[in-house]
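User: Run a structure prediction on this.
Assistant: Running it now.
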Amino acid sequence: MFQFFANIFGYVLNFMNNFVGNYGLAIILFTVLIKIIMLPLSIKQQRTMKKSAKLQEQIKVLQFKYKNDPEKLNREMMDLYKKENMSPFSGCLSTIVQFILLISIFYMVRCPLTYMERIDKTQIDTYVQQLKDNGMSINQAYSEIDIIRELDYLKEKFPDDQTLDKINLNMNFCGLDLSKIPQQNLGDWTVYIIPILYIISTFVSMRITTSMQKKNKKKDGVIDITENKDEMEDAMEQSNKMMSWMMPIMSVSISLVAPLGLALYWLVNNVLMIGERLVLDKIIKD
């Protein structure tokens, strides 16, 4: 499944790369396009978040009212979800979609010659072997990135190879080499710029989301009638916290062992998401 989406994304990103002539700019345009396509889901997610804030307070009332009758509480909660036309797992769809995008785009960025340039695997293996025979160190996981980095050498070695001449991936962006992998270039301080900006944007995004949730509760004038959280409520809050931290932690971990092009995608995506949430919060009233 991930390879299927990586193929589709590769076609789109390659078209944009050929149009603008720069891999970094192409990734930015690609990220904007993905955001536009995902806008309906984002609008639905924003509405769900606002509605969920109201719903959680009604659930607290039910939990207090039926704290000694778990079966009755479960029935009342299910009735409440049906009445409000919501699912307890409504937030899962967004997480699943984000996970699919994360892995698919990772595939594409890891293997740009396969998914963007459509070069046959046998030919890629030939280039890799040639680099190895020349004593060059090749990372098996990112061998295609190594081919791009040593493209000039390969063109000298195979002057009549038309495939090499067709490779058009300029990975220099604002003075940064997007083919570099932080884990392999620990002594190069420039490889930390994009991952650090991504981490900062992630915390800003989470802070804005938390602030919006609190604002929605205050705006609804809801009073917490329980002084202590019961086990169910505490479990729900812990689950929500875990979900909100899971994707950023996973993304940061991968960005340190993947080419910087992937971290650039996540950084731009986060910046767009922050702007999107602020705008949608003003537009969506219920």
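The mean pLDDT is 79.
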